[in-house]
């Protein structure tokens, strides 16, 4: 499909050192927050990672990856409902994946907050090559060894696509660059995809890549929140939303 990221590009593999930009950002943030906590000042910046609304491929349990699928009517309703709640957080900046399902979701928050949306290719879902468009059952049948390795948490180029660490390599710098633009104690909303959000959470929380799958999936239009403290980023909420929702096809 036109505009998809390259399937396999050299990047940091599992267990490699943290990129210097992320290390510098962490140290700078920790120094700033440590001084502010000691002085009794406010909480520090927050990042809200918001998954897009429902699509038809979510309902069919098809692996979307970076295929550009629209929201369903229900997905649009989910975005409108969640946007009203998220507006209560008084976000300062709003960035989004450039895929249609994320763009449409972000647009609903932009309507109620008046914020402009910055769209980024780096926030797209994992490119999964030959897996894209297939159901879980079809993937297991066609790629049994690859699927089993992925299920066991091994680094796998699903369908010849990206490693999870490569997704983090392209997405986390986009988020950190936006954090740098926040006002003091500001809130950034990042509209993205279940798999990509998982990699960003894992990287920002300093977890080993083999542990990233320990995060439960995000339901459509639910979100996770990170706050920055003196010891770095910490998880404040996970899979929060308007009402309890089942997780459907979260790597999509």
From TrEMBL:
Q: Which residues form the signal peptide?
A: none
Name the segments for region: Disordered. Answer: 1-40
Q: Which residues bind substrate?
A: 51-58, 101
MF-aspect GO terms = phosphatase activity
Q: According to the UniProt entry, which residue ranges have a biased composition of type Basic and acidic residues?
A: 11-21
CDD domains (UniProt xref)? HP_PGM_like (cd07067)
Superkingdom of the organism of origin: Bacteria
- Residues of the active site are 52 (tele-phosphohistidine intermediate), 125 (proton donor/acceptor)
Output a single Gene Ontology CC term carried by this record: cytoplasm
SUPFAM superfamilies reported in the protein's UniProt record? Phosphoglycerate mutase-like
Where is composition skewed (Basic residues) in this entry? Answer: 22-34
Query: Would you tell me the protein name for this molecule?
Result: Histidine phosphatase family protein
């Amino acid at each position: 499909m036109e505009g998809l990221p390259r399937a396999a590009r050299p990047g940091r593999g599992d267990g490699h050192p943290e990129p210097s930009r992320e290390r510098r950002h962490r140290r700078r943030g920790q120094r700033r927050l440590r001084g502010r906590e000691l002085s009794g000042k406010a909480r520090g910046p927050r990042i809200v990672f918001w998954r897009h609304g429902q699509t038809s491929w979510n309902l069919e349990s098809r692996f979307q990856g970076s295929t550009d699928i629209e929201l369903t009517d229900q997905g649009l309703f989910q975005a409108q409902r969640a946007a009203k709640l998220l507006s209560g957080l008084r976000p300062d900046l709003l960035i989004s994946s450039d895929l249609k399902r994320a763009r449409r979701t972000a647009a609903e928050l932009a309507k109620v907050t008046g914020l402009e949306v910055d769209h980024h290719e780096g926030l797209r879902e994992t490119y999964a090559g030959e897996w894209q468009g297939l159901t879980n059952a079809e993937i297991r049948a066609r790629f049994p060894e690859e699927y089993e390795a992925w299920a066991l948490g091994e680094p796998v180029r699903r369908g010849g696509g990206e490693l999870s660490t490569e997704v983090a390599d392209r997405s986390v710098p986009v988020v950190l660059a936006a954090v740098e633009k926040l006002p003091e104690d500001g809130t950034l909303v990042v509209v993205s995809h279940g798999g990509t959000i998982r990699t960003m959470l894992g990287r920002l929380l300093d977890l080993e890549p083999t542990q990233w799958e320990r995060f439960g999936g995000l339901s459509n239009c639910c979100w996770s929140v990170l706050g920055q403290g003196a010891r770095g980023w910490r998880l404040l909420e996970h899979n929060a939303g308007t009402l309890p929702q089942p997780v459907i096809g979260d790597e999509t």
